[in-house]
What does this fold into?
Amino acid sequence: MSTYPTLHMLIGGEQVSDGGRETDDVIDPATGEVLGTVPLANADDLDAALDNAAKGFRIWRAAPADKRAKVLTLAAGLLRDRAADIAQLMTREQGKPLAEAKGEVMYCASLFEFYAGETRRNYGRTLVRPAGQRSEVRHEPVGPVAAFAPWNFPAINVARKVGGPIAAGCSVIVKPSEETPASGIAVVQALLDAGLPPEVCQIVFGVPDEVSRHLLGSPIIRKLSFTGSTAVGKHLAKLAAEDMKRTTMELGGHGPVLVFADADVDQVLDTMVAAKFRNSGQVCVSPTRFVVEAPIYEKFRDGFVSRAKAIKVGNGLEDGTQMGPMANARGTEGLAKKVADAVERGAKLHTGGERVGNQGFFYAPTVLSDIPENAEIMNEEPFGPVALLNSYAGEVEMIAEANRLPYGLAAYAWTENPARRRRLADEIEAGMLAINGASVSAVDAPFGGVKWSGHGSEDGAEGVSACMVIKTVHES
It folds into this structure.
């Protein structure tokens, strides 16, 4: 795909372009060049999206499970057919290597297929009652959903936002990030091409606070789904509370990785260094704080540094690139400040800590060690390609560090001790824990956090049930 497409919103199936509306530039993070402009919704556009969502809910809640499943299944097939083209778009507007982008599209397809099956598995139940009486528990779609998706996984985040509601029988208005619009448009277009009624799913773009206040201020919207920072999540939750709207919030993290002395150090490094620098560290579940048991600390640190230095940084469209640019200038500037603060407070910088080249938003894979607890980067999510390595005396101290922060999205642990694995599963405060591995995401498993990392889940059966309400019906 040699050209970047003309961007538009999708309201009632109509492609709504700029037409005199305000616009934002979409920037190629590898070059700094403008790829295109995305139209920003005005109040009339948002009202039109709300009207369509209300109509769409009446249509889709009455659609049988088989019809909802068919649309999701056909959309999954279209995403697979279009994966190479969508991946090109994603790499150009977000920066990640092409292989990562294509894998993201394939995950979206698998998620839609799983949700297709969930349309037939979302059971209620009938309660035991005396003859002549009947009581049943019903699962019903919650209503129109307002969903807000970030830029770091521009296809997966949109697929999660729309897939659950569509499987449940809801309508949805989704606002992808204005920085990565084409990927989200492609996901929704696949659903429309698969036969989804155009009133059921709308895409809008706009000034985030204006869009969120307008949509959440409407009684038409019955649920909010948001992925992003904890600060913005708290703000949106307050807006939703004004009308008692249900919420699913996937917020910030600061992933601890507990590495015990009985682990295979080389296996841990081969797995977790790749995981750390995936998507340039711009991953909500990114492994960030490496909590290493003292006997293996030096070996682990030296192996991590050598592997980080070997990572090939470049344009995600180029063969051999292992890590692309950060997605925007805010990322590189914010990360540079956090690294400088850590070093000033006594942390050791082993590699990286600087931008790469003089165009785009490239930042070198960075490794810090012996970081004091009061450094900003030890307490606020860096959301970039930096690993934090510290030594700890043993299990009690390591678990305490893992649970120290108010975040609890993803955590990781490496140990060969079965009893310790059970203790970690019991004691680590996180919505997702990977033991002896790096993956915390699967289409059939719930994805979400605890504490300041939010509540509710996407993916898995929970991603559909989060879009349902419970009604109990008693007959005498």
In short: The longest strand covers residues 134-141.
